[in-house]
Amino acid sequence: MDNNIITPIKFNNGIITILDQTKLPNEIVYVDLVTVEDVYDSIKELKIRGAPAIGIAGAYGLFVVSRNSKALTVKELLNELKIKGDYLISSRPTAVNLEWAIKRIVHKLNINIFSTTNEVLEFVSSEAQLIQKEDEQTCYKIGEFGSKLLENVKNVLTHCNAGSIATAKYGTALSPIYYLNDRGKNIHVYADETRPLLQGARLTAWELMKAGIEVTLITDSMAGFVMAKKNIGAVIVGADRITANGDVANKIGTYSVAILAKEHKIPFYVAAPLSTFDVSIDSGDDIPIEERAKEEVTFIGGRQYAPDDVDVYNPAFDVTPNEYITAIITEKGIITPSYRANIKKHFE
Amino acid sequence: MDNNIITPIKFNNGIITILDQTKLPNEIVYVDLVTVEDVYDSIKELKIRGAPAIGIAGAYGLFVVSRNSKALTVKELLNELKIKGDYLISSRPTAVNLEWAIKRIVHKLNINIFSTTNEVLEFVSSEAQLIQKEDEQTCYKIGEFGSKLLENVKNVLTHCNAGSIATAKYGTALSPIYYLNDRGKNIHVYADETRPLLQGARLTAWELMKAGIEVTLITDSMAGFVMAKKNIGAVIVGADRITANGDVANKIGTYSVAILAKEHKIPFYVAAPLSTFDVSIDSGDDIPIEERAKEEVTFIGGRQYAPDDVDVYNPAFDVTPNEYITAIITEKGIITPSYRANIKKHFE
User: Fold this and answer.
1) What range does the domain containing B86 cover?
2) Where among B109, B137, B165 does a domain terminate?
3) Comparing C-alpha atoms, which of B313, B255, B317, B320 is closest to residue B290?
4) What is the pLDDT of residue B93?
5) What is the ipTM score, two decimals?
6) Do A260 and B262 touch (CB under 8 A)?
7) Is residue B305 within 8 Å of A301, Cβ to Cβ?
8) Are B175 and B47 contained in the same domain?
9) Which of A204, A219, A283 to mutate to test the interface with B (most CBs of B within 10 A)?
């Protein structure tokens, strides 16, 4: 069953292949990334998305640079990798994992000694694969820990896509579902479509169906009624950022879902790797809210659905205060309240 | 200012003109209804929508039948009106007001005595105009009573379209906003776009802008965050049906909004005419939930956004239990808890 879990990036015999997520679910298109521009464009155009997956793509971007390089010396190649690395980072400047992955490789290149450009190529290749492998393991561990919370649960509700195709494999919020499915326990997933960009409809529903997991698509407005009527045993979502006190920034709509879960006495779980925590930020109040283009709301698929000149509020994410969160699942275990103390302990 | 409030149906010199709501907000198209088939189609194709507005259109449909009739005797004409009335009802069999309006006129025709077909025509004309006028007055009174609840409110959130274009004029949920705006008090409205059919984006935002009322469009998923951040003083929605205990069936998503309002300690108001109450039904548990086509969720504007064969749950409305409702506003006054007793009193 594990084989049916979609991986968004493949590396075989030096060829990088990605799933073009902009074409989902109507077309399943895999694209080879041959040049550094291919990698840049695929990130910029959201063919590859999800913080961990973007980081992995960036790392493979450096491999592509190494392989295509005409540099004659190690020094020349390292210099080129630095420059092209910055170029890759600029494809999505706010993607923390992208910068992290590229800087990690560039840093390691600087502190190692290489005799030939081919040694550099080999090193970058193995480092990129390592980043991918580590993320897969991280997600797997999240699945393993998270599965313990879902043992008696039949139906789960999720928001947006924190799934396999946002990571190396397994995802974060969806990883426990995959983990349990692989062990013969079928959980039915209710997927919020997640306006404005419809990641739930386009991505979550698709990847779960591909893996043979039962999924029911709903509009975001139905979440409350589904909780009242459909025996939802848990809500599980991913996170963009988690602050020192356990507040969670995630896709807009997460906060509403958390309140609805509380009202229905349904546990609300956040699944995220340790890299999502930013303990330098005290609480969610200190996170600036990014507002995106109004056209994301007024247009769908190139067609206009609201009046010209209408005022729109379009925050990209919201902040769910820690009081609504039953537990946070990481690759290291499960964090429960009180969060400030327990997050600190978790990182020790 | 009142003049800028959109009326969806106009009757001037025997000509019935409707606003084609399927073309909003991109095109503002008014259509004359000349034949009974025009009326039937305009209801069936949702050019005219909203329970009260459909009832009014049906009544004018009988006027069209009378005017176009080739009947030579009163008896012949009354018979034709009965048959064509049933035909009009079949355009939207679940629209309670449509059946109510047509049966009201047919019943009055049966208990009155007419000498000529022209007398019948005059009678139907004045009855249809009366139904329209009564609805306008009902909505106006809802606005007047509702305005008292919004006196200290700066920002209101609403769901779907319970506005002027769903009624003769003024609407239900939006009527207090219009009432206050007409008296120089400007309330800012946050309008949920209301998936799947986007009535908030297409209709509510449009009619409020036309009337010069400040409106901000949001996706349904943003309602919770907007309540937390935007100083929302009240939520106000319409209703499809209200049961004897004060449970409210309304557009899917209303229940979620009611819970979010409760969590933010924001009053949650329902505005509806007395005709919306069905006290023969004890509680919301007894209301069957109509499920609509999955394509409403998976397709937007003819384009597919979810996988083929995905399972979809698409309830047309949900039930908000009375405990979430701060007050119900009717043309007769304001009903507060406990609802079972006070609704009974309200109808005495």
Assistant:
1) 9-137
2) B137
3) B317
4) 80
5) 0.94
6) no
7) yes
8) no
9) A219
Tell me, yes or no, whether A49 and A154 share the same domain.
no
* Cross-strand pairs, B295: none
Distance, first Cα to last Cα, chain B:
36
The neighbour count for residue A111, using CB atoms within 10 Å, is 6
Using alpha carbons, select from A308, A294, A221 the residue that is nearest to residue B206: A308
Per-residue pLDDT averaged across A202-213, rounded?
98
- Distance of residue A324 Cα from the nearest chain B Cα, in angstroms: 11
**What is the model's pTM?**
0.95
Nearest CA in chain B to A25: B307
Chain A hits for B301, Cβ within 8 Å: 300-301, 303, 305
- pLDDT score for B1: 54
Q: State the nearest Cα–Cα gap between B221 and chain A, in angstroms.
A: 4
**pLDDT attached to residue B2:** 73
Q: What is the pLDDT of residue A1?
A: 54
Q: Identify the CATH number of the domain in which residue A320 sits.
A: 3.40.50.10470
Q: Which of A135, A192, A220, A240 is catalytic?
A: A240
**Does B262 contact A263 at a Cβ distance shorter than 8 Å?**
yes
Q: Of the candidates B172, B181, B162, which has an alpha carbon nearest to the alpha carbon of residue B139?
A: B172
Q: What is the pLDDT of residue A94?
A: 75
Nearest Cα residue in chain A from B297: A219
A240 tagged catalytic: yes
- Look up the CATH number of the domain holding residue B103: 1.20.120.420
Percent of chain A surpassing pLDDT 90: 95
Question: Residue A302's pLDDT is what?
Answer: 87
* Cross-chain residue pair B311–A215, CB shorter than 8 Å: yes
Rounded to the nearest angstrom, the minimum Cα separation between B14 and chain A is 32
Separation between Cα atoms, residue B181 and residue B164, nearest integer Å: 14
